[in-house]
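Narrative summary of target 7.
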Amino acid sequence: MSEKVCIITGGTSGIGLAAAREMRSAGYTVYEFSRREQGIDGFCHIPTDVTDEAAVQHAVERVLQAEDHIDVLINSAGFGISGAVEFTAAKDAKHQFDVNFFGMVNMNRAVLPIMRAAGRGRIVNISSVAGTIAIPFQTYYSASKAAINAYTMALANEIRPFGISVCAVMPGDIRTGFTAAREKLHAGDDIYGGRIGRSVSGMERDEQHGMSPETAGKYVCSLATRKRVKPLYAIGIVYKFFCLLEKLLPVRLLSWLVGILYAK
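Modeled conformation, tokenized:
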């Protein structure tokens, strides 16, 4: 039985893997949930599809067979789709939410009773700056992350009396395999004058010159282990500034600036 226990979803790559390594270095036994059959050496891998509520519950029960507590949950599983709203099938939009949002919901519902009984716990949800500043042609990704932010803000007040705290981390551009894994929907690009392709290409260039996943993972670990947290955090000075601008600028001006950057 371990003294400190962390569950992390999506911990086989990107920010999730970097955070898992940091949590292990901080002395936690890390249980990693992902759809892959094989995990990463050093972690207790449990193949799990976070969109399957029953599978999530079973995986959490497996952790409790070895441990009698769960200290930290980091919800890092997620992916992105891009394309014009008009040409994005409802099933693709729903799948985006099933993984990014409801996968997180399933995990939290499974661990909250355990943390509540223990009178303590920390949940870290991986969101995005796109949840605050919505990106055209990545509408459903942005909407799924905005949903995480709103959910986290509300949940923080619900569970505070039980000694459980929750926060959402909003990375910006990160150099990970997320870029290559993005599901790019090109339908309608001719109708939209090539704007879909230009927007996504620009975003992907920014991502490949962005922050390292190791830097983001350290930040996630620091939030998972510090004494107190607030509900929302942006990673990096630049993205903190962008989130501040979102609060200060008139909506019309902010929308115009985003359009210049990502919709021309």
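The longest strand covers residues 164-170.
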